[in-house]
Backbone:
């Protein structure tokens, strides 16, 4: 099976390139990850709202899914392919957001086989689902901050991780230009993801992603 995977930022790409081979056999299955420069919003009328070169994930999602559906339709029957879209929930309503995403697929012709995997609240929740990995990557991490986290809670997840591992915490990190914040998040992915035990993660949204990949490849 082949997976085309869309993520909202470079740190997400970095993390998944490390984690996916821990979840499924990359000798039997293939994947390609495309990262974007932010999440944006699903456009009204499901018509892509920004220029393609701006690479904003949700703004472009109707166009992307339609194009991928056409591409997948040309694959041979013995080479199944699935589109995986991973993005942050942020402060959205999960059920409403998922319905809006599914509506995009429903309106495509032909629709690609698609799975949406939403990190709750943010991608850093997947790291915080494995505190042992965080502590191994950052031995001086503030344990009181880490231990105060409730898995997949809406609490300012990346800020929580920053408060635990970044000098000066989220307050100091937030003062940096946004691209430097992104670079720091990519460092988290590079350091934490290799140490994660994918079979013992306490983030429900990570486990959903892991189990969906495994379910799809076992069909």
Residues:
């Amino acid at each position: 099976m082949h997976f085309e995977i869309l993520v909202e930022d470079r740190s997400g790409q970095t993390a998944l390139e490390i984690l996916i081979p821990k979840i499924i056999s990359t000798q039997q299955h293939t994947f390609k990850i495309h990262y974007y420069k932010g999440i944006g919003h699903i456009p009204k009328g499901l018509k892509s709202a920004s220029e393609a070169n701006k690479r904003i994930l949700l703004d472009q999602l109707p166009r992307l899914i339609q194009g991928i559906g056409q591409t997948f339709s040309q694959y041979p029957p013995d080479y199944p392919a699935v589109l995986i879209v991973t993005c942050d929930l942020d402060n959205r309503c999960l059920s409403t957001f998922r319905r809006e995403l599914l509506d995009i697929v429903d309106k495509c012709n032909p629709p690609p086989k698609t799975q949406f995997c939403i990190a709750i609240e943010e991608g850093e929740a997947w790291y915080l689902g494995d505190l042992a990995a965080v502590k191994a990557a950052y031995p001086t991490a503030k344990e009181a901050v880490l231990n105060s986290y409730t898995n997949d809670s809406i609490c300012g997840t990346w800020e929580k991780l920053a408060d635990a591992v970044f000098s000066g915490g989220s307050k100091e990190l937030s003062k940096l230009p946004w691209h430097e914040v992104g670079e720091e998040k990519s460092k988290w992915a590079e350091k934490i993801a290799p140490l994660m035990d994918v079979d013992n993660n306490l983030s429900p949204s990570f486990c959903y992603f892991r189990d969906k990949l495994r379910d799809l490849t076992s069909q």
